[in-house]
Amino acid sequence: MSKFGKSFVSFLKIMGLIILCIGAAFAIVWPLWKFATAASRIYTIVVLSLIAILIVYFIVRKIIKNIKKHA
User: Fold this and answer.
1) Model's pTM, two decimal places?
2) pLDDT tier at 39 (50, 70, 90 boundaries)?
3) Is the torsion defined by CA of 30, 35, 40, 41 positive or negative?
4) Would you say 48 and 41 are in contact if contact means Cβ atoms under 8 Å apart?
5) CB burial readout 34-50, b (16+ within 10 A) else e
6) Is the pLDDT at 69 greater than 90, yes or no?
7) To the nearest 10°, the Cα dihedral for 59, 62, 66, 67?
8) Do residues 47 and 55 touch, judged by C-beta distance below 8 A?
9) Distances (CA, A) of 68 to 4, 56, 57, 62, 64
10) CA 8 – CA 50 distance, rounded (Å)
11) Is the pLDDT of residue 49 over 80?
12) CA dihedral of residues 18, 19, 23, 26 (deg, nearest 10)
């Protein structure tokens, strides 16, 4: 394959990756945005609940790790 052909294939791969990233971002962000604007109170409750669960998870994990370390 010529140097131009390799460059063109590399360009197509990069463009494909960019399109894939944009598509994945849109697939994740759009439903979240739609949920946040359509039901802002429920969205706020869900997000705060997930943050609280994550904090409790890390605290419990740290406690369990310390118990195993000192037992």
Assistant:
1) 0.62
2) very high
3) negative
4) no
5) eeeeeeeeebeeeeeee
6) no
7) 60
8) no
9) 60, 18, 16, 10, 6
10) 45
11) yes
12) 60
Query: DSSP per residue over 8-57, as a string?
Result: HHHHHHHHHHHHHHHHHHHHHHHHHHHHHHHSHHHHHHHHHHHHHHHHHH
Rounded Cα–Cα distance for residues 31 and 42 (Å): 14
Which single residue is written with the structure tokens 């994990």? 61
Both structure tokens of 43 = 């969205």
Report the C-alpha gap between 55 and 16 in whole angstroms. Answer: 38
Residue written as token pair 């406690």: 63
Q: Which tokens is 60 given?
A: 């419990």
